[in-house]
Amino acid sequence: MEKFLYYSPVIITVVIFLIQQRIVVTPEQLEKKHREILKDVEDKFTTLNSFKDLKANFSEMKDKIDKIYDCLIITK
Length: 76
Description:
mainly alpha
Protein backbone atom coordinates (compact mmCIF):
# COMPACT_ATOMS: atom_id res chain seq x y z
CA MET A 1 0.00 0.00 0.00
CA GLU A 2 2.89 2.34 0.70
CA LYS A 3 4.06 1.92 -2.88
CA PHE A 4 0.74 3.26 -4.11
CA LEU A 5 1.01 6.24 -1.83
CA TYR A 6 4.52 6.91 -3.01
CA TYR A 7 3.48 6.81 -6.69
CA SER A 8 0.05 8.39 -6.22
CA PRO A 9 1.00 11.80 -7.72
CA VAL A 10 2.26 10.08 -10.85
CA ILE A 11 -0.82 7.84 -11.03
CA ILE A 12 -3.15 10.82 -10.65
CA THR A 13 -1.24 12.75 -13.31
CA VAL A 14 -1.43 9.87 -15.77
CA VAL A 15 -5.15 9.33 -15.15
CA ILE A 16 -5.89 13.04 -15.63
CA PHE A 17 -3.86 13.08 -18.84
CA LEU A 18 -5.77 10.07 -20.20
CA ILE A 19 -9.10 11.71 -19.41
CA GLN A 20 -8.10 15.05 -20.93
CA GLN A 21 -6.90 13.42 -24.14
CA ARG A 22 -10.11 11.38 -24.25
CA ILE A 23 -8.23 8.13 -24.37
CA VAL A 24 -10.49 6.77 -21.64
CA VAL A 25 -14.21 7.37 -22.10
CA THR A 26 -17.01 7.31 -19.58
CA PRO A 27 -20.02 5.05 -20.02
CA GLU A 28 -22.10 8.18 -20.59
CA GLN A 29 -19.92 9.25 -23.53
CA LEU A 30 -19.97 5.72 -24.90
CA GLU A 31 -23.78 5.60 -24.76
CA LYS A 32 -24.02 8.98 -26.52
CA LYS A 33 -21.74 7.79 -29.35
CA HIS A 34 -23.70 4.55 -29.60
CA ARG A 35 -26.95 6.51 -30.10
CA GLU A 36 -25.28 8.65 -32.78
CA ILE A 37 -24.07 5.56 -34.65
CA LEU A 38 -27.52 3.95 -34.50
CA LYS A 39 -29.14 7.13 -35.84
CA ASP A 40 -26.64 7.33 -38.72
CA VAL A 41 -27.23 3.68 -39.61
CA GLU A 42 -31.00 4.19 -39.47
CA ASP A 43 -30.73 7.17 -41.81
CA LYS A 44 -28.45 5.50 -44.35
CA PHE A 45 -29.71 1.92 -44.46
CA THR A 46 -33.06 0.17 -44.62
CA THR A 47 -34.32 -2.54 -42.34
CA LEU A 48 -34.55 -6.15 -43.46
CA ASN A 49 -38.34 -6.13 -43.13
CA SER A 50 -38.66 -3.05 -45.34
CA PHE A 51 -36.40 -4.64 -47.93
CA LYS A 52 -38.44 -7.84 -47.99
CA ASP A 53 -41.68 -5.87 -48.37
CA LEU A 54 -40.25 -3.85 -51.24
CA LYS A 55 -38.96 -7.00 -52.90
CA ALA A 56 -42.42 -8.58 -52.63
CA ASN A 57 -43.98 -5.46 -54.15
CA PHE A 58 -41.57 -5.60 -57.08
CA SER A 59 -42.42 -9.24 -57.58
CA GLU A 60 -46.16 -8.42 -57.64
CA MET A 61 -45.57 -5.58 -60.10
CA LYS A 62 -43.56 -7.90 -62.34
CA ASP A 63 -46.41 -10.41 -62.37
CA LYS A 64 -48.92 -7.70 -63.27
CA ILE A 65 -46.70 -6.38 -66.06
CA ASP A 66 -46.32 -9.91 -67.41
CA LYS A 67 -50.12 -10.32 -67.43
CA ILE A 68 -50.56 -7.01 -69.28
CA TYR A 69 -47.89 -8.06 -71.78
CA ASP A 70 -49.64 -11.41 -72.32
CA CYS A 71 -52.97 -9.64 -72.90
CA LEU A 72 -51.39 -7.33 -75.47
CA ILE A 73 -49.82 -10.25 -77.34
CA ILE A 74 -53.07 -12.25 -77.37
CA THR A 75 -55.14 -9.33 -78.73
CA LYS A 76 -52.81 -8.83 -81.71
